[in-house]
Please model this.
Amino acid sequence: MTINEIQDEIIAEFSGFDDWMDKYELLIEMGNSLDPMPEDEKTPAHLIEGCQSRVWITAAMQDGKVHYQGESDAIIVKGIVSLLLRVLNDQKPQDIIESDLYFIKEIGLDEHLSPTRSNGLVAMLNQMKMYAVAFAAQQ
Model:
């Protein structure tokens, strides 16, 4: 699936809920379904600066695509990590670099996060794109 197809799928899933408490519940469920990150990957080098809670994201190239792993110690943030991984994981570096992640605004996430969580979301996205830039430069 392309990045935009995955975003459209997420928008459809969230559109079934009018109440933001239900959307938070869906976000928490998504976070709970995230594969656990190996403890030895939870290092200061993989810690995302700018997040109020602790968030770790790693990346590796596999078959010409970027494979991410991530986790957080906060349940809502873990859900956000799971959304970002779902959209960007196993995509080509150039597609990640050029992506416009419109789903964040479309599902209303940008309006329902505290300022510190919004800053964390931007920091996570920036790090994921930086990984893609580094892998693209190696190709």
Residues 115-138 form the longest helix (24 residues). The radius of gyration is 14 Å. DSSP finds six helices and two strands in the chain. Helices lie at 3-15, 20-32, 75-88, 93-98, 103-106, 115-138.
